[in-house]
Design a protein that fits this description.
- This protein is of the alpha/beta class.
- The protein is built from 10 helices and 8 strands.
- It has one domain: Alpha-Beta Barrel (TIM Barrel).
- It has an 8-stranded parallel β-sheet with strand order 1-2-3-4-5-6-7-8.
- It starts with 13 loop residues before the first strand and ends in a 16-residue tail after the last helix.
- The mean pLDDT is 97.
Length: 268
C-alpha cells in the first residue's frame, strides 16, 4: 500500500506480539516462507532478536522484507527516543528500519510531541524510512501534525469488528494516514459471532479469514499473529475471495466499542 511519504508497505503483515522470544525466529521464518513480506515487532515485545534471526535465516534480501518496530513508553523524550531507536536498530541487525512507530502516546508524560520531533529527525537522517504512531487519538494526531507539519504515515490501533473506530478512521482518511489494525481478530473473541460464522460458511472459509478479508476490503493494513504453522498459512489466504457489499454492511453492524487492550488516553 502507498504511504504518504512515497514509500510502500504490504497490506497484510505478520505480527509477533506475545510470541515468546524463543519461538519468534521459527514463526517469522514460516511466515516468510508462506509469503508474508512484512513483520511487525516492538521493543516492548522482547523478540526483536528473534525477528532478526528469522529474517536472516529466510534467505531473503533485506530489501524484500518490510520491518516495523516501536518505541515504548519508557523511552519518550528526545535523548531517550534516539537511544531506543539505536538499540532496536542494533538488535534487528539492520542499517535501517522500514517503519518506526511511537507505541503509545502516554499523554500523562506529555512527551509524545518531543518524541515525534525526534522521529522526524531520524527519518531525515535516513536511519528510518517511514515514521508513524500507534494508539494515537485524534487530538494526539492533531497536535503533532500542527506542531511539525509532518503527518504520520500510519496509526496502528486496536481494530476489529467489535471496535471499529469509525471517527478515527475517517480522520486518518482525511489526513492520508493509513489505518493499521492490531488485534484484528479481537484476540479471537469475534470468531464465534453468528454473523461471522454464517458468512464464513457461505464462502467455505474460516471466521478468521472472513474478518481479515473485511479488514482488507476496508483498506486497513492488518497484522495477524500466530505461532501455529497452519494458522499462519490460513491467515495469508485472504486474497482469492471477496465479501459482498451486504456482507460488509452486516459486519459493520457488529461494532460495540469494546476494547480488548488499554485506553490510549490513560495507558502509561
Amino acid at each position: 500500500m502507498d504511504l504518504n511519504d512515497k514509500n510502500r508497505m504490504p497490506q497484510l503483515g505478520f505480527g509477533v506480539f506475545q510470541v515468546p522470544a524463543e519461538e519468534t525466529a521459527e514463526a517469522v521464518g514460516h511466515a516468510l516462507h508462506t509469503g508474508y513480506r512484512s513483520i511487525d515487532t516492538a521493543a516492548a515485545y522482547g523478540n526483536e532478536e528473534g525477528v532478526r534471526a528469522g529474517v536472516q535465516a529466510s534467505g531473503l534480501e533485506r530489501g524484500d522484507v518490510f520491518i516495523t518496530t516501536k518505541l515504548f513508553n519508557t523511552d519518550h523524550g528526545r535523548d531517550q527516543a534516539r537511544r531506543a531507536f539505536q538499540q532496536s536498530l542494533e538488535t534487528l541487525g539492520n542499517d535501517y528500519i522500514d517503519l518506526y512507530l511511537i507505541h503509545w502516546p502516554v499523554p500523562a508524560k506529555d512527551l509524545y510531541l518531543e518524541t515525534w520531533e525526534t522521529l522526524c529527525s531520524l527519518r531525515d537522517e535516513g536511519a528510518v524510512r517511514s515514521i508513524g504512531v500507534s494508539n494515537f487519538q485524534i487530538d494526539h494526531l492533531e497536535r503533532i501534525i500542527d506542531a511539525t507539519g509532518v503527518v504520520p504515515t500510519v496509526n496502528q490501533i486496536e481494530l476489529h469488528p467489535r471496535l471499529q473506530q469509525p471517527e478515527l478512521r475517517r480522520f486518518h482518511a482525511e489526513q492520508g494516514i493509513l489505518t493499521e489494525a492490531w488485534s484484528p481478530l479481537g484476540q479471537g473473541a469475534v470468531l464465534d459471532d453468528p454473523v461471522i460464522v454464517e458468512i464464513a460458511a457461505a464462502h467455505d472459509r474460516t471466521p478468521a479469514q472472513v474478518v481479515l478479508r473485511w479488514h482488507i476490503q476496508l483498506g486497513n493494513v492488518v497484522i495477524p499473529k500466530s505461532v501455529t504453522p497452519s494458522r499462519i498459512e490460513e491467515n495469508f489466504q485472504v486474497f482469492d475471495f471477496e465479501l459482498s457489499d451486504a456482507e460488509m454492511s452486516r459486519l459493520g453492524e457488529l461494532d460495540r466499542g469494546e476494547r480488548t487492550g488499554p485506553d490510549p488516553d490513560t495507558f502509561e
